[in-house]
Design brief:
With 261 residues, this protein is an alpha/beta fold. 34% of the residues lie in helices and 16% in strands. The protein is built from eight helices and ten strands. The strands form two sheets. It has a seven-stranded parallel β-sheet with strand order 1-10-9-6-2-3-5. The chain has a three-stranded antiparallel β-sheet with strand order 4-8-7. The chain binds fructose -6-phosphate (F6R). Fructose -6-phosphate binds next to helix 2.
């Protein structure tokens, strides 16, 4: 696991977008695993800029999102499908038929979870999985207690996630308390993981995920199990990291990062 601390949120966002773009240039038919939320809006804006100004080409790429609220159809303004269309898909040249999210209106949740995992496998698996982290440590919507081997499934959200996300709904009470999420096990099968964490309010949970014990009670700690995970944070989110000096040293000394310093 590499941890990279950048001075500003913008620097952290730009590095994340650049690593995604470089992966796409290397492998134009790659499969992105994508996240939603406030943190990712700036990443998607930067990818859209690269498409517009630098010709970054998504025509052959596919994407699978981590999660979707149960009960919301894709045209609902609060659905993650709507978010993705608005913040990314409508602003780049990915083929709409190559973008996938769990179906929030699926009648049979168990079947929908299995179908989604199969669809990921049929696409050859996720090449690069983008992750944020929730205030309660969730990745995707894997709330505390999610098995580290869990698969895509329906879950109940925590009161903390309700506090985090309900302000994004016009009427807070409209936020569904259940969602589909890729499982932690599903996420760990991706070839690479890129986790982006920004802002002071994430400092504690970031330190727990990256430097605390591996535990199902902090799903984000599962990045420690992955053998190609990069965690990119800004100064504010990284302020409680104990091994900060080492992270800075290896970013400067490791030739893999030479082009990104
Ligand atoms: C959503 C997702 C979540 C978010 C997390 C942080 O698709 O994967 O795990 O990354 O809730 O959300 P923000 O960025 O709004 O703080």
């Amino acid at each position: 696991m590499d941890v990279i601390v950048r001075a500003t949120t913008q620097d952290a966002v730009k590095l994340t977008a650049r690593l995604m773009a470089d992966e796409l240039r290397k492998q134009p038919d790659m499969v992105f695993g994508l996240a939603t939320g406030r943190t990712m809006e700036a990443v998607y804006a930067e990818l859209a800029r690269m498409h517009r100004e630098e010709g970054l080409n998504f025509t052959h790429a596919k994407s699978f999102n981590l999660d979707e609220y149960i009960g919301l159809a894709g045209d609902d303004v609060n659905s993650y499908r709507y978010y993705m269309n608005k913040h990314l898909f409508n602003n780049i040249n990915i083929r709409p038929e190559n973008t996938f999210l769990p179906d929030g209106t699926a009648a049979n949740p168990d079947r929908e979870g299995r179908r989604y995992d199969e669809a990921i496998n049929n696409a050859g698996g996720v090449t690069l999985q983008l992750l944020g982290i929730g205030r309660d440590g969730h990745i995707g919507f894997n709330e505390p207690g999610s098995s580290l081997r869990s698969r895509t499934r329906a879950v109940c959200l925590t009161p903390e996630t309700y506090e985090q996300n309900s302000p994004l709904f016009a009427r807070r009470e409209d936020m569904p308390m259940r969602a589909f999420t890729m499982g932690v096990g599903t996420i760990l099968e991706s070839q690479k993981i890129l986790m982006l964490v920004t802002g002071d309010e994430k400092a504690e949970i970031l330190a727990a995920a990256v430097e605390g014990p591996l535990t199902a009670m902090v799903s984000g700690s599962a990045v420690q199990l992955h053998n190609d995970a990069v965690v990119i944070v800004d100064e504010a989110a990284g302020r409680l990291l104990k091994h900060r000096a080492y992270y800075d040293f290896s970013f400067q000394a490791d030739p893999r990062w030479a082009a990104y310093r």
